[in-house]
Input
Amino acid sequence: MTKGEEIFWKNARAILRDIGMAHLDLAHGAAVNIVRQCLNTRHRPTYHQQTFLESESLALLVYLERLATSGDATGWRSLEQRILFRAEILRETEMQPCARPWLAAIWHCLPEFAAIGQTMLNEFDEPKSISNYEDVPALTDADVNAGDGGDDKGSAGKAGSAGTAAMPRPSRLALPVVAVVLTEAEKEALKKKALNDATDANEGTTPDGPEGVDGPVMNGPGGKK
Output
């Protein structure tokens, strides 16, 4: 593990301690810290943050990258408003107090952020909820631990266990599927970016250079701005 990775996971552990949820997988603390840092810097996840989200929540990564590359502060303000709204609910319901209520509110908003990101992954025309595409119940601790234990003769090694060996690794960041109603500002921001991407692609169909070397630079996850 590199020094950067050590700091990444150390921060994740500190986040869980600050929100009073040390029993959760460190992936949850890492996701909260990524959202916090991206909101503060208005920048996309990079380095260990990007690698982590590519593995654990591509939808969340896509959402944060869209906000960072949109060139419009409206999306970031909408994200912040969702967190503020959740923080207010937590105060009114007198949830268990913790050292960093703002971070706890971010954690409670993670399913919403992932749901919005999923709409982008599905190339939507009108913003929709993740529930339109995914009818899979949230993972439980029993589901996550189902593959643990046992010996080499367990069900995972049986040729007759249909699909067992081919099943993907469950995400450590198991978020419940939620229905999300986007605000008008969010709809406009997301549509604007989608239209801009389509326009850029169309304008780049005819290369400027004599040999086609000056094609379009596409925006997207990991791409240039």
About this structure: The mean pLDDT is 75. DSSP finds eight helices and no strands in the chain.
